[in-house]
Amino acid sequence: MSADILSRIVARKHEEVAEAEKLIPEKNLAEQAKARQDYRPFFKTLSKPGKSGVNIIAEIKRASPSKGIICPDLDPAEFARAYEKGGASCLSVLTDRDFFQGSINDLKAARKSVSLPVLRKDFMISPYQFYESAAMGADAVLLIVRILEPVQLKDFMQLAAELNLDTLTEVHSKAELETAVKAGAKLVGINNRNLGTFETNIQKAADLASLFTSDQVPVAESGIKTREDIISLQKAGIFNFLIGESIVRSPDPKAFLKSLAGRMKP
Ligand SMILES: O=P(O)(O)OC[C@@H](O)[C@@H](O)c1c[nH]c2ccccc12
């Protein structure tokens, strides 16, 4: 059943983009995108470890196809503030509606209430979405190697650069890592979750990080739940962690974030 979820998400995304283009033409968004002024440094923040020795990109995530409903009524502004107070280095906001119950408004509300750089977490398959991302105020976008042709990956990286959007390029295998590196990716996310099967194994990030050169900065993504998970991945040279579900489910996200970064007893 889950084997084709990713292709369903991508197929739906093409429809959504076509619908959005009818409401707001790309030309209009491009103007808004170019007028954007308050870019916040996502890549630069993640290029060296934060004060605690790690950077946490804390994610705002209401639901997911693998976990179902996580926290459907969450208030993105309130969560963003708790994440900032808990020492998060950046935010990630899911904007996919149909599979993750996110929205553009979630990103805008979260970003407005803090001063952290914000990653737009979505399935980027069309240039339209890059203009849209810059227009909504995102500082960075996710590029998932698995759903893009290598030339498309390169073109999208270039378009993102023109719009002053940083990119986090996501891989799940050695072959995808090679594709990412060839395309010039600098910030590379290793997704511990296989987006086709939902199988999650945090060892994945450690294994692939060993293949990185000093030109690429790794980000471990998905399935990270404890301080021990972080310590074990730090041993593999990783200092950036993208974490969603375990923070959203925590009764006290601010305190939980501090404990993940080793700044408070759990
Ligand atoms: O909630 P988790 O297991 O901590 O994972 C966060 C993040 O890595 C995950 O949401 C994610 C990583 N890559 C994606 C691509 C699309 C959608 C979601 C994702």
UniProtKB/TrEMBL annotation:
Residues 6-260 form the Indole-3-glycerol phosphate synthase domain. Its EC number is 4.1.1.48. It catalyses: 1-(2-carboxyphenylamino)-1-deoxy-D-ribulose 5-phosphate + H(+) = (1S,2R)-1-C-(indol-3-yl)glycerol 3-phosphate + CO2 + H2O. Keywords: Amino-acid biosynthesis, Aromatic amino acid biosynthesis, Decarboxylase, Lyase, Tryptophan biosynthesis. It is an enzyme of class 4 (lyase). Gene3D superfamilies: Aldolase class I (3.20.20.70). Pfam families: IGPS. It comes from the Bacteria. Transmembrane segments: none annotated. One of its GO terms (biological process) is L-tryptophan biosynthetic process. Pathway: Amino-acid biosynthesis; L-tryptophan biosynthesis; L-tryptophan from chorismate: step 4/5. CDD domains: IGPS. Belongs to the TrpC family. NCBIfam families: PRK00278.1-6, PRK00278.2-4. This is Indole-3-glycerol phosphate synthase.
